[in-house]
Amino acid sequence: MTALFQQLPSVDKILKTEQGEQLIQTFGHTAVVNCCRHLLCLAREEIKSSQTIPHFFSSFDNTITEIQKHLTNQQQVQIQSVHNLTGTVLHTNLGRALWSEAAQQAAVTAMSQNVALEYDLDVGKRSHRDNYISELIHQLTGAEAACIVNNNAAAVLLILSTFAQGKEVIISRGELIEIGGAFRIPDIMAQAGCKLVEVGTTNRTHLKDYRNAINENTAFLMKVHTSNYQICGFTSEVSEQELTELGKEFNIPVITDLGSGALTDLSQYNLPKEPTVQENLAQGVDLISFSGDKLLGGPQAGIIVGKKELIQQLQSHPLKRVLRCDKVILAGLEATLRLYLQPEKLAEKLTSLHLLTQPIEQLTQQAEQLKATLETLLKDDFSLQIESSSAQIGSGSQPMAKIPSIAVTISGKNNGKLTALLARFKSLSTPVIGRVENNKIWLDLRSLANIEKLLTTLKELSA
Ligand SMILES: *Cc1c(COP(=O)(O)O)cnc(C)c1O
Q1: What average pLDDT values come out for the chain (463 residues) when binned by 10 residues?
Q2: How far is the CA of 152 from the centre of ligand 1 (A)?
Q3: Crossing angle between the packed helical segments 60-73 and 29-50, to the nearest 10 degrees
Q4: 227 CA from centroid of ligand 1 (Å)
Q5: Which atom of ligand 1 is nearest to the CA of 177?
Q6: Which cofactor does it need (predicted)?
Q7: Residues in contact with ligand 1 (CB, 6 Å cut-off)
Q8: CATH number among 3.40.462.10, 3.40.50.1980, 3.30.470.20, 3.90.1150.180, domain 83-91+354-462
Q9: CA of 260 to the centre of ligand 1 (A)
Q10: pLDDT digits (tens, 9 = 90+) for 403-434
């Protein structure tokens, strides 16, 4: 054992060689020293436990190669690219909406150059970072103004904190939802220090339920778009229109959390209809909040639109400063919204809408390419098929709505083979993420951003 320990080089000895000096040139002294110490530590443990010397100290070249590998890997970002073949287009765990080309460019400019973020170039004076977007939202929806925060959860928190602290908010029992990841309407109400007044029942709420709950301590009437589940059968809810009429009668605002929130009618693309911001405004809703990275197809953000007077109150609440967006997000969001000014080009330029509207024939073509590539790489342990599939919008939008899609399915001679293949897919340089259903791997093409890149990645399977 002592002999083995003596075979290990000292840190100094490694550094003083020509290759050692080259490593220092590339990675810097600190990282190389730390890496040498780490490898030596591993080696001592291996000698102690199994009386062998690890392969990376079996020769000097091996040691240098190991250090190089280690220090290169150290710079590998873990939030890495994956191929989304889950069939869920706005997949929360895979980062939701992909940014459009225009949004990416705006973001790169904002992060690498000085930008007129809070500076009005016309008058040469300080302005407000939400102004550009507020004007665009006005143009697109007719809303008087907008306030932008970190995400829609933040938007709801800011609204409640600004208007309802120490007061009551009336909401239907059928809308007390959990979004997932600990965002529950009752909890967020408690966090904002307001009292939740639940009215109606899980399946039925009537206008008189709201009316009976109104008192002098009522801050506003709230509606939450229950985007991630559906109540079917004997149901009844109060429309925004009826609610805003009631609100006017008592001079109380009506506020909706629209969740995904669409700025355009999705049924024109044969997609399931989501209530639009414009419809909510037309129904007289005073404030509406929605996400930037769901159906809108932009960066993570919470967008609050509506009455100027109310927006101004949100803007001056101290929490707004806590929840505000940075320049990169605002630039990306502005570029995303500008695409909506040219509606005929939207499905081409807005990546998420492009994915959702790809024709089946196009997906079938991609499936054929994918199947052919896999057939040459997987040998005959597996059987491959092209099948119709049901994709989803994702992010809680329309969970019941199935979007027609095409998948390549893989079944194995046994389950062990399929599990091993899934693991191989995940270990590729750009991991491939599918879904498992009925003992098959489903590679759904609806959610895939780039077929060429996928085919290139898959070639690694032959190695
Ligand atoms: C998604 C969603 C939220 C949370 O939005 P984030 O942007 O993810 O914070 C809140 N309310 C509803 C109704 C939602 O669908």
Answers
A1: 91 96 98 98 96 95 97 95 97 96 98 96 94 98 98 96 97 81 81 93 89 97 81 81 96 95 94 93 98 97 98 98 98 98 98 98 98 91 95 78 95 88 96 95 98 98 85
A2: 5
A3: 120
A4: 9
A5: 13
A6: pyridoxal 5'-phosphate
A7: 151-153, 179, 183, 224-225, 227, 257, 259-260, 291, 302, 396
A8: 3.90.1150.180
A9: 7
A10: 999 999 999 888 889 999 999 999 999 999 99
| Tokens describing residue 282 | 């037309």
Give the C-alpha distances (Å, rounded to integers) separating 223 from 309, 311, 398.
Answer: 20, 18, 17
Characterise 273 by phi-psi region: left (phi > 0), alpha (psi -120 to 50), beta (else): beta
CA distance 363 to 444: 9
Burial 217-249 (b: 16+ CB within 10 A, else e): ebbbbbbbbbbbeeeeeeeebbebeebbebbee
Pocket test for ligand 1, best of 92, 150, 152 (most atoms within 8 A of CB): 152
What 3-state class would DSSP assign to 275?
coil
- What is the pLDDT, as a whole number, of residue 179? 65
Residue 284 DSSP label: T
Closest residue to atom 15 of ligand 1, CA basis: 259
Mind listing the pLDDT tens digit for each residue in 329-367?
999 999 999 999 999 999 999 999 999 999 999 999 999
Same fold, 83-91+354-462 and 101-349: no
- The one-letter code for the residue type at 60 is F
Q: What tokens appear for 118 in the block?
A: 């809070």
Closest listed residue to residue 84, CA positions, set 351, 444, 395: 444
Q: How much distance in Å is there from the Cα of 78 to the middle of ligand 1?
A: 26
Interval between CA 339 and ligand 1 midpoint (Å) = 23
- For the chain, the structural domain boundaries read 1-75, 83-91+354-462, 101-349
| Backbone φ and ψ of 170, nearest 5° | -100, 130
Query: What would the CATH number be for the domain defined by 101-349?
Result: 3.40.640.10
What pLDDT is recorded for position 261? 84
